[in-house]
Amino acid sequence: MTTQFSALFPGLDNPLILKRYPDSSDANLQAWDAADEHLLKHLDESGMLPRRWLVINDSFGALTCALRARHGDTPIDFAADGRTAHLGALENLQSNSLCQQEIHFHDCSQLQSLGNDAAILMKLPKNLNFFADTLSQLSQTLRAGQQVLIGAKAKHINQSLLTLIGKNLGEANASLAWKKTRVIVVTADGKPRPLSKPNRWPVPELGLILENHSNVFAANKLDIGARLMLDNLPVGDFSQVIDLGCGNGVLGLQTARLYPNANVHFVDESAMAVASAMANWALNKLNPDLGKFHWDDCLSHLDAGISADLVLCNPPFHQGEAITDHIAWQMFNDAKRSLKPGGLLHIVGNRHLGYHVKLKRLFGNCKTIASNGKFVILQSVA
Ligand SMILES: C[S@@+](CC[C@H](N)C(=O)[O-])C[C@H]1O[C@@H](n2cnc3c(N)ncnc32)[C@H](O)[C@@H]1O
Fold this sequence. Notes:
By secondary structure, the chain is of the alpha/beta class. The chain is built from ten helices and 20 strands. It is 29% helix and 27% strand.
């Protein structure tokens, strides 16, 4: 089932039809939220007509589509870390017949060269290290007095958030609440802040060194699911391995050390995760010819010629703030398609998520390899 939502945003005569990416059959999940509406209402009231827009963290292109529909071909820089945000924005622009010319797509590592002549709209991300990194990048380029509008749920705005913004970009004031959201108006003070560096930390028990960019899962210690996985990696004659949802790449890195002749493909929808996995491959002195890195939504764009004998996966159980198992489900389906006959899908999951039911349905088999009070390691054979 396709769930489409039509959104009549402030300043628009016709509604937009917006979908999440990947499309979800969960009728509770929609492609925009009240903070998007609040940002657009704020713009409507301010009558702002800039020569360029910079839109940061627009989940599925709702803001970008609305700006394009309201303001014709004013150039837009779209910056998001997530591949699904980029693909969602592209699909929603296309399905609403909005022109894509002069929309420039970026990940969030290039913000220090964007925004100087633009009106800037941002959605508050969940990860505050990533938020601070974003602001300090913007501080390199914004003029004193230039404003950034940040849309957020009112419950996420407090004095320490405003202080963090002050520390990294300039003074911040929150608007009155509307539909339980506020718009934070930040006035840049024109002073460049030091850029944040990736966090580097050792894993002595594995003899690995890891580096995480600001928006990468497990910032300074191993995830407990990943730890159980590392204690129970499969044994076999592996030559094509995929670390699906790789984060900093710890699962694939350790596998590469056990199977030094294997090609290891690291896949994540976060550009910062892929950059971290790539840095970690080099940092741990693994063979540069054998590490491959893919910024993708699951395995949607993986070269059809890659036929894996092992897929490792510690799947997410949320997308942004929405708790959902549809990404895990897509990962398992994509893994099945990419495995050669006899290849293994080896996953870790929270016990209560019931992944064994899904795997049994998909592969016709599923074995429990290990478990503890909270997590379970499951394996299916293609
Ligand atoms: C639970 S973390 C696991 C990270 C790492 N493998 C570990 O074990 O520490 C899940 C990872 O899946 C990634 N992810 C989420 N949605 C994805 C998607 N649609 N396609 C690919 N990766 C995705 C997240 O960015 C995150 O890095």
